[in-house]
Write a structure and sequence with these properties.
This protein is mostly helical. The chain has one domain (12-127): Orthogonal Bundle (TerB-like). It is 69% helix and 0% strand. The chain has helices at residues 12-27, 34-47, 55-71, 73-88, 93-108, 115-127. Helix 1 (12-27) packs across helix 3 (55-71) and helix 2 runs antiparallel to helix 5. The chain is globular.
């Protein structure tokens, strides 16, 4: 699924939501694996602009939020809905494909695709309006 990501295609808020989706995918099995984080980091390096908030600060905050959200199913569902809702109005079809490629790459990075990861990926596809024909 690996994709080339054109540089700087996202504004700051949208990029943060995209990265949060990837972190959510990585965390859904209870652990952010090193190879999953490398994919996210590669995406960040290609898209994060110097005038954005410190990535390290954003990273700590996001990982902490996502880890606590995953513990509670209802909170998780609300966070997911809010993240994807914020994305849908800001993404063109190319960007939607970039997001799906990113979360898909993260999903399979550890060599294991869990049922929860598969369900989450299908949720992303559904919410972004992507259909398999």
């Amino acid at each position: 699924m690996s994709a080339e990501f054109p540089a700087n295609r996202f504004d700051e808020d949208t990029l943060k939501n995209v990265i949060s989706c990837a972190v959510l995918m990585s965390s859904i099995d209870g652990k952010i694996h090193e190879n999953e984080w490398e994919i996210i980091q590669g995406f960040v390096e290609q898209h994060w602009k110097e005038d954005y908030q410190s990535f390290q600060e954003f990273q700590k905050q996001t990982i902490s939020e996502i880890e606590s959200v995953i513990r509670e199913n209802q909170t998780f569902r609300m966070r997911l809905d809010r993240l994807v809702e914020d994305l849908t109005g800001n993404l063109d079809s190319h960007q939607k494909n970039l997001v799906l490629n990113l979360v898909g790459d993260v999903m399979v990075a550890d060599g294991i695709m869990t049922l929860d990861e598969s369900k989450l990926f299908n949720t992303f596809m559904d919410k972004l309006g992507i259909r398999i024909s």
